[in-house]
Design a protein that fits this description.
GROEL, domain 1, GroEL, seven-stranded mixed beta sheet, 16 helices
Length: about 550
């Protein structure tokens, strides 16, 4: 007697499930598509992307992380690749495209191994061994960097800017960036540099070469009263983070006035209180006041009469930068203000930049916070110049902190590929195949540089391999001539940290994706999880 077997549902209705090789293929395809998207932006001859949001906002950039953030990737595996770019940006500030392209290539090579029925965990083990060896090789071929070597530092900054929209002005921008980083650097046993101490203020108008470094802070604020002086030399600066106004009572209060005289004395009292506040500032010798909150109209009048320059509603972050730049201290209670709390700047002035008035706090003694004022003929040009500067700041900080740099132009990846190939020959078992695949994957960077420059990738890579076989460790690609050059001599220099971070995070994400053999997507009412089909990039 046969009994009908009822199907058993353990997952809620509408759940999508992908298992085994199908799930792996799907995830690898998604990751490869993300890598392909940013791949054409790599190198000095990389192209830009124009990203148009649903609101019609336009971004023109070749900065990997900006492209991936704005693309609003949906596929879960593709999102994991985008995370690498974000981590790279947060940790180092540059090398986002490299990290993503390497991760995509590692998965592409893994796919060939999966086709040969090599188990994913074997590939993962091999990749981890290769990654560990790669980091050791990079450290071995890196060269030391001294903070006094300003020429080398400028080369690092220029390399970071090459290929960006601001490349035409990279010499002047690199010089500005190096000076800014050296100014905010300090030693506490080790070198300490905080990128937040370098404020990048962007203003449309003028040209990119009009960008300048201000030894102090540039505020997007104007003086509060037209009767105040436009400029103050040898300014003593009070930084106040409370309002210069009459405080309202904390609880609801009622004041009963029985005749007009009382009303007048009430107003006179308010006036005396405000005048008292300004008198305190004058008594301590303050000639400039920056206030985080509001300044009463009457207080503005008294300040103008006393010849004080004041600006109000300044952001908390800017107040902290002002304190670092001028050496002043933030004061909450005006009664506690003393002469010791005042900061110093050789000049505080209101100046017109583009069509807006801005306040410049210039020439502070030993400023530990500085401003780079970025100019550009249009919003998009200024934005791309800002991104180029922030990339080079990240590179300089990474180089100075680790004190080690590498030759770029695909030279270190080619050397990695050569040495990892030798390392794979010392292994037995199937891991050898994974290490060999990892070594081949490293070639993706020089190959992409050649492709983006319109060169024949096969000829270029053959020539480059031949140079590395002759122990020319710093041999890289000159994308302008199509020939092999000594990247170190040519001044194409990158921080060690950019490469080590890119390779370790690319390996970690690639191995994580390889270990997934089951994708269960709950039915959230958004429809099924997007299927990735070869050549179909629209579903990301």
């Amino acid at each position: 007697m046969s009994r009908d077997i009822q199907p058993i549902f353990i997952l809620p209705e509408g759940t999508q499930r992908n298992t085994g090789k199908n799930a792996q293929r799907n995830n690898i395809m998604a990751a490869k598509l993300v890598a392909e998207t940013v791949r054409t932006t790599l190198g000095p001859k990389g192209m830009d992307k124009m990203l148009v949001s649903s609101m019609g906002d336009i971004i023109v950039t070749n900065d990997g992380v900006t492209i991936l953030k704005e693309m609003q990737v949906e596929h879960p595996a593709a999102k994991m690749i985008v995370e690498i770019a974000k981590t790279q940006e947060d940790e180092v500030g540059d090398g986002t495209t490299t990290a993503v392209v390497v991760a995509g290539e590692l998965l592409k090579k893994a796919e060939d191994l999966l086709d040969k029925d090599i188990h994913p965990t074997v590939i993962v083990k091999g990749y981890n061994m290769a990654s560990e060896k790669a980091l050791a090789i990079l450290s071995d071929i890196a060269k030391p960097l001294q903070e006094k070597d300003s020429e080398l530092l400028e080369m690092i900054a220029e390399t970071a800017m090459t290929g960006k929209g601001a490349e035409a002005n990279k010499n002047s921008l690199a010089s500005i960036t190096v000076k800014a980083v050296i100014k905010v650097m300090h030693r506490e046993g080790t070198i300490k540099i905080d990128s937040d101490d370098i404020k990048i203020e962007k203003k449309v108008g003028g040209r990119v070469e009009d960008s300048e470094l201000v030894d102090g802070i540039v505020l997007d604020k104007e003086r509060v009263h037209s009767g105040m002086p436009i400029a103050i030399k040898n300014a003593k600066i009070a930084l106040i983070d409370s309002a210069l106004e009459i405080k309202n009572t904390e609880t609801d209060a009622k004041i009963q006035i029985t005749d007009p005289g009382q009303m007048q004395s009430f107003l006179d009292m308010e006036e005396r209180m405000l005048k008292g506040m300004v008198d305190k500032l004058v008594k301590q010798g303050a000639s400039v006041v920056f206030c985080q909150k509001g300044i009463d109209d009457l207080a503005q009048h008294f300040m103008a009469k006393a010849g004080i320059y004041a600006a109000r509603r300044i952001k908390k972050s800017d107040m902290e930068k002002l304190a670092k730049a001028t050496g002043g201290r933030l004061v909450t209670n005006l009664d506690d203000l003393s002469e010791r709390d005042l900061g110093f700047a050789a000049l505080v002035e209101e100046s017109k930049v583009g069509d807006e008035m801005m306040t410049f706090v210039r020439d502070c003694k030993s400023a530990k916070s500085v401003t780079i004022l970025v100019r550009g003929s249009t919003e998009h040009v200024a934005d791309e110049a800002e991104r180029a500067i922030s990339d080079s700041i990240g590179d300089l900080i990474a180089a100075l902190k680790t004190g080690k740099v590498l030759a770029g132009a695909g030279s270190c990846e080619m050397e990695l590929s050569k040495r990892l190939m030798k390392f794979s020959e010392s292994l037995s078992g199937r891991e050898q195949l994974a290490v060999k695949a990892y070594a081949e994957a490293m070639e993706v960077i020089p190959r992409t540089l050649a492709e983006n420059a319109g060169l024949d990738p096969i000829d270029t890579l053959t020539e480059l391999k031949s140079a590395h076989e002759k122990n020319q460790v710093t041999a890289g690609i000159n994308v302008f001539t199509g020939k092999v050059m000594d990247a170190w001599e040519a001044g194409v220099i990158e921080p060690l940290k950019v490469k080590t971070q890119a390779i370790s995070s690319a390996t970690e994400v690639a191995t994580m994706i390889l270990r997934i053999d089951d994708v269960i997507a709950s039915g959230s009412g958004k429809g099924p999880m997007p299927e990735m089909k070869p050549g179909d990039g629209a579903e990301m």
